[in-house]
Amino acid sequence: MTCDRCDQAAKDGYDYCPKCGRSLRGCEMCRTYADQGYEYCGNCGKRLKEKDDRTLEKAVFIAVPFVVAMLAIEAACMLYWFPDTLAGVKGLSLNMFLLLPSAVGIGVLTGTGLQAYWVLLVVAIVASGLVMLYQSRAIFDRRSANYVEGISRTSLFWIAVLFSADMVVVLVIAAIEGSLGYTIAVPDDLPMDLSPEAFLAYANAAVWEEMACRVIPIGIPMVVVAALCGKKDCVRYLLGGTGVTRVAVVLMVISAVVFGLAHESGWGAAKVVPMIFSGLMLSYLFIRFGIYASIMLHFLIDYTALMIPAVGQEIYSFILIAVIVLGFISVAKLAKDIRDGVRRIDRMPVWIQESSDSKRD
After folding, report:
1. What CA–CA distance (Å, rounded) separates 334 from 341?
2. Phi-psi region of 26 (alpha: psi -120 to 50; beta: other; left: phi over 0)
3. Smallest Cα–Cα separation from 266: which of 329, 205, 189, 187?
4. In this structure, what DSSP letter does residue 212 have?
5. Confidence band (pLDDT; 50, 70, 90) for 167?
6. Are 92 and 197 in contact (CB under 8 A)?
7. How does pLDDT run across 69-126, given as a tens digit for each residue?
């Protein structure tokens, strides 16, 4: 039988209930009872059907195919133009920086060094995509008795949720700022074509900005916290994916603010608030799933600028409008999850999670 914490622990991604110790993954008989239409397994007592609290997940899941299509197009463009970019970046230069919390230059990459860096960026993005697909393999197993629950625990599902919600919220913020006389100043030198400058700039943003804005302000402090808590494997906290705690949430907010302020110099003050929101989305993916998930969302957002020249205005508009429409549902889901999270804040671990939801697959 279940206790009063089992259902919430399952939603939070635990394999076992932290109160009663019951397995939340079910047993070998769960599917048999589910196929017969039962709500609970007659062998282990696991709930096999959610009542009515998965409606938003089902609706938001519609955004996943659109996001997968966008990621596939963007990745295909990056790989197709990889040789041209590799040759083109040799004549470019790239300023490297850290956020401490303002941008501090640490050097300039040029020539062969920049070519090697471009290769590393592509490897990091491709590797992140492969990890995302592996972690999200439950999406492709529709035979599962708990399919909706399974997909809602994947990084790909949450990338779709946060991307579509980010599109809506950023547009709303921009509209409000515009009505108040504040407009985002797009940099004159921002590449919007299929040039080596564009592929390099957006790939660098997806990977290096995540290292500078997530690993340094969140990962490193969490390593220290884990070490102080006696965790022998504290180094694994460096790349995120170790679960949501109160300390992690504080660091998430700090990271998002730093990320937002870093965009003021190039884009103007109107860019700060939208980027703080985007920073919160990226930071959440980092602490819940790991650096690979935040890299993929950042890649998805930034490489969107290259979709128009790659596939044409019509296809781009169709996909983007669909994502924005579904984004309103995603915003509703986020609002519900935030409300539920606030209600159970007293049950959230303070420092580190003993059973991290990053282990869910």
Report:
1. 10
2. left
3. 187
4. I
5. very high
6. yes
7. 999 999 999 999 999 999 999 999 999 988 776 778 899 999 999 999 999 999 999 9
Mean pLDDT over residues 227-244, rounded?
92
CA dist 356 and 242 (Å) reads: 5
Please return the burial class of 30, using the count of CB atoms within 10 Å of its CB with bins 0-12, 13-18 and 19+: buried
185's tokens: 């100043």
For tokens 């490193």, the residue is 220
Domain ranges across the chain:
1-49, 55-359
Structure tokens, 200: 């390099």
pLDDT of residue 250: 95
Q: Is the pLDDT of residue 2 over 60?
A: no
Letter for the amino acid at 124?
A
User: Which residue is associated with the tokens 């299509």?
Assistant: 69
Which helix (H) or strand (E) segment holds residue 131: the answer is helix 111-135
What share of residues in the chain are helix, strand, coil (percent, to 5)?
65, 5, 25
Fill in the amino acid letter for 18.
Answer: P
**Token pair of 344, please?**
């159970």
Provide the whole-model pTM. Answer: 0.83
Joined tokens for residue 191? 């590449």
At position 315, the amino acid (one-letter code) is I
* Residue 356 pLDDT greater than 50, yes or no: no
- Long-range contacts from 100-105, C-beta under 8 angstroms, 24+ separation: 101/217, 101/258, 101/261, 101/262, 102/261, 102/262, 103/262, 103/265
For the purposes of burial, counting CB atoms within 10 Å of the CB of 26, is it exposed (0-12), middle (13-18) or buried (19 or more)? buried
